[in-house]
Amino acid sequence: MRKFFDLLWTDIIKQKRSLVWPAAFLAPLITEALLFLDFYLRRDYILNRAAKEGLSAWQTLVLEHHLTALWFITLPMAVTVVCALLYHAEHASGGLRYTLSLPVGKGRLYLSKWCTGAIFLCLMLLLDALMLAAVGKIFRLPGGLDYQLLMSYIVNQAVAAIGILSLQMWLSSVTPNVILPLAAGFIGITTSLFLAQDQNIARIIPYAHVLYTMPLPGENNRLALEGGIFFAAFFLVAGLLCFSKKDVTE
Amino acid sequence: MKKMLEVELLKLKNSWVLLVATLAPGFMVFQGVANFLRYYELFTSRGQNVWHQIYLQSSIFYVSAMLPVLITLIMVSIARIEYKSGGLRYFLTLPVKRSGVYAAKLIVGCMVCLFNVLVFSLSLLVAGKVINAPGSIPYDIILTKPLMVYIASLPVMIITFLLSINISQMGIPLGIGIGFALPSLLVANTRYWVFYPWTYPIMAALGGDFFEKAYFPFAAGFLIFVLLAFAGLRWFMEKDVLD
Question: What pLDDT digit, counting tens, does each position of A168-198 carry?
Fold first, then answer.
């Protein structure tokens, strides 16, 4: 177990000067800037329209953040980029070949990378939630900060995005060509935007699950949670199996 | 120059870029047609042109998300081939014209982007035929419009090309390309779109009611491309071989 934590710590340290940090922090920052502008330009209109539909001010904030500020696209794209960059650093420096030649299990190595990705995902979601709450406070939304709503939102997103993370980690580990996992991710995300509207189709597309993570009345969060858990486990196992058979010279 | 272009094309022969550029538009048209069929009644209830509806549904996310991201990936890939193997440094030490190297890379990048747009047109044509869209094939919609989108995308191409060719760390052009592409659909709905080149393809493709300045994306797009291409060339000519 100690070896695993050593590997995990090493993986995090490796990112000290990498572009994973800006990627993880800029994604929520851009989204919140768009949300801020959205509320700055049409706060009253948004809140009045939402009140007619029976939504509270904080629920409206989540809705605007998710759909209008395009977080449902930005989050999967950011996860795709983070996963690609985590492996790209290894492939570019030949570090993976070196580490694979050391007496550490390939499974542990893959898991430590996966956990590093998950840590960055959690950081990204936490930062996003903090800034989301800040935007709500800045615009003096009526009612106190809805902690339960925000917590459910974070958990739903984390579970849905972990499915994408597993898939992208697997794709990124398979090939040293960084363009391939990025392209697969971007095509998957953009293609699923319309297809995700049909819940039966959305169920089988991991990239579509983030769309169903808003904890609002009428939203099918179960789809995101069940799909996220299933694909996270499925692609984690697939990735572990592929990585354990990886040749050190590849 | 011809030899340079052949060399650049040869480098791409076994890369995934061509496959990605071929498959991606097909997926976009597939999801657009799926959405069209899903809401068939809504999209045809007022006697709308089926070809135009297929085009609209397929274009929305193609021009706003997929195309700028693909352009970024294509340009990054073309530059990455050199940085990965140290080929650019080797190239610059040879008695070849730097302007030739620069132009060949830019032309090949733009050609792959054009190929991508043409595949999009072809996918629209196939999709229309598959669902038996009535009437004759409207080439002004399925061919001319995408080509206009291509011209409006020229600034995105040159910006991402210059970033990719000048910065060895591929994450930076990638991040900028994707980061600027994401909010483009929102910016396109404001009057500030003229300052944001990533909105030009959207304005060229979707036009409609908010297409206020019909000529602007093409004129500005072409102008930005030419200016930045020459500025980039000048910088590339002075580039130190060790950079």
Answer: 999 998 888 888 899 899 888 988 877 787 8
State the smallest CA–CA distance between residue A147 and chain B in angstroms.
28
Judge residue B42's burial from the number of C-beta atoms within 10 Å of its C-beta, 0-12 exposed, 13-18 middle, 19 or more buried: exposed
Per-residue model confidence (pLDDT) at position B209: 47
Is B70 an interface residue toward A (CB < 8 Å)?
A: yes
ipTM summary value: 0.79
Render pLDDT for A206-238 as a digit per residue (tens, 0 to 9). 999 999 999 998 888 999 999 999 999 999 999
On whether any CB of chain A is under 8 Å from the CB of B229, the answer is no
The mean predicted confidence, pLDDT, of chain B is 86
Residue written as tokens 């976009």? B28
Q: Do B186 and A70 touch (CB under 8 A)?
A: yes
Structure tokens of A67? 């759909």
Give Cα separations from B205 to A41, A118, B55, B194 (angstroms): 26, 38, 9, 15
Q: What is the tens place of the pLDDT at every residue in B128-152?
A: 999 988 888 888 888 989 999 999 9
Chain B CA closest to residue A198? B38
Distance, in Å, from the CA atom of A123 to the CA atom of A117, rounded to the nearest integer, reads 10
pLDDT at A18: 80
Q: For chain A, what are the domain ranges?
A: 2-244
Give the chain A residue whose CA is nearest to the CA of B185.
A70
Lowest-confidence segment of A106-110, A138-142, B22-26, B206-210 by average pLDDT: B206-210
Indicate which of B11, B14, B16, B18 best probes the interface with A, i.e. most A CBs within 10 Å of its own CB: B16
> Which of B15, B20, B56, B185 to probe by mutation at the A interface, max A CB count within 10 Å?
B20
- Residue B75: which of B228, B243, B239 has the closest Cα? B228
